């Protein structure tokens, strides 16, 4: 009995759809990526509900002065009796807001300038490339300190916008280089030959192939923005009335917490910074492994040689297994 052609095509399409679905979500199957996303998701949840779950007002004073961690105060108290756990929880919102907002602003500018200059070329492309070169050499942190000191009431949004506008140039350079290598590919030439508009080619032919690079640039900008926000608070540039992890470290350093043996004053905030930075780095490593097939194997691939022995492929090396000469 002959099988209808429609059934055969349907049977062949199902495995292809399953493979495409697995490839689409393969980015989230790596251990580094899952760990990074889980930790970042935890900090985002804390940033949203921090005011609700904090047991005390982070600025409220009490008679419990410089107490070590206990059942009443999980992370101990400051020299004014303020609960450090509440300060860390409430301060998470400022750190995540500045990091994500600056990352979004910088990524949008990097995509607009980098992809446009790489695809258009000529005088417009060279002009945009020169603009990114100018922003590339601007000292971002001193500029942030000057503007932050001039406008002390700007808040987290102003800091995020300044960081975003001063940290997009490197991502734009990377995206321009990738776009230059993509605009001469066969599928781009075919789309151009069929009469597709420039912006449709950029959005539907080139941009999907830059997704991983854009994501990596976004993560790198978030890391820089978080560290910049904490640095500004630590040196006392940003408003000290708004709690974040850098503000905690500022007060701990100004009151000589280390000399007084009050390790609980600065260790929780420092650990929070280290854990968030590690999570963002793991997410960035996961993106790199997803983009690079050589890194994706992580040195786990093994090949059986002509001599019958199993050879382990190492990252950074491409082993060549030659055949043994026979007499």
| Number of helices in the DSSP assignment | 13
Summed up, the domain count is 2
The CATH fourth-level homologous superfamily of the largest domain:
MetI-like
CATH class of the largest domain: Mainly Alpha
Rounded to an integer in angstroms, the radius of gyration calculated over CA atoms is 26 Å
Order of helices and strands: HHHHHHHHHHHHHEE
Helix content: 55-70%
- Looking at the structure, the CATH topology of the largest domain is MetI-like fold
Describe this structure in words.
By secondary structure, this protein is an all-alpha fold. The chain has 2 domains: about 25-295, MetI-like fold (Orthogonal Bundle); about 300-325, no CATH class. It is built from 13 helices and 2 strands; from the N terminus they run αααααααααααααββ. Strands 1-2 form a two-stranded antiparallel sheet. The longest helix has about 35 residues, at about 85-120.
Task: Write the SSE topology.
Layout: H1 5-24, H2 31-53, H3 84-120, H4 122-136, H5 140-150, H6 155-165, H7 169-182, H8 186-193, H9 198-206, H10 211-234, H11 245-254, H12 267-291, H13 293-296, E1 302-304, E2 310-312
Antiparallel strand pairs: 1-2
């Amino acid at each position: 009995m002959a099988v209808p052609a429609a059934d055969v095509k349907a049977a062949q399409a199902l495995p292809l759809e399953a493979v495409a679905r697995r490839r689409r979500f393969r980015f989230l199957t790596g251990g580094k990526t899952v760990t990074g996303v889980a930790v970042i998701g935890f900090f985002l949840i804390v940033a949203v509900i921090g005011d609700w779950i904090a047991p005390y007002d982070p600025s409220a004073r009490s008679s419990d002065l410089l107490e070590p961690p206990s059942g009443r105060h999980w992370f101990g108290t400051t020299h004014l009796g303020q609960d450090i756990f509440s300060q860390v929880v409430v301060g998470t919102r400022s750190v995540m807001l500045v990091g994500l907002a600056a990352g979004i602003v910088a990524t949008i500018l990097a995509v607009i300038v980098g992809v446009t200059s790489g695809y258009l070329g000529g005088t417009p492309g060279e002009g945009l490339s020169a603009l990114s070169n100018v922003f590339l050499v601007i000292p971002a942190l001193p500029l942030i300190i000057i503007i932050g000191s001039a406008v002390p009431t700007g808040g987290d949004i102003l800091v995020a916008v300044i960081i975003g506008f001063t940290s997009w140039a490197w991502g734009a350079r990377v995206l321009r280089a990738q776009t230059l290598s993509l605009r001469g590919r066969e599928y781009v030439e075919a789309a151009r030959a069929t009469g597709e508009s420039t912006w449709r080619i950029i959005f539907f032919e080139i941009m999907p192939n830059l997704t991983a690079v854009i994501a990596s640039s976004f993560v790198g900008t978030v890391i820089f923005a978080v560290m910049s926000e904490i640095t500004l608070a630590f040196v006392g540039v940003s408003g000290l009335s708004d709690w974040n992890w850098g503000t905690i470290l500022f007060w701990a350093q100004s009151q000589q917490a280390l000399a007084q043996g009050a390790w609980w004053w600065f260790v929780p905030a420092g650990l929070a910074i280290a854990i968030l930075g590690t999570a963002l780095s793991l997410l960035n490593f996961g993106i790199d492994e997803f983009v690079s097939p050589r890194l994706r194997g992580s040195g786990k691939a093994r090949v059986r040689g002509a001599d019958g022995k199993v050879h382990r492929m190492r990252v950074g090396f491409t082993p060549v297994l030659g055949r043994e000469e026979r007499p």
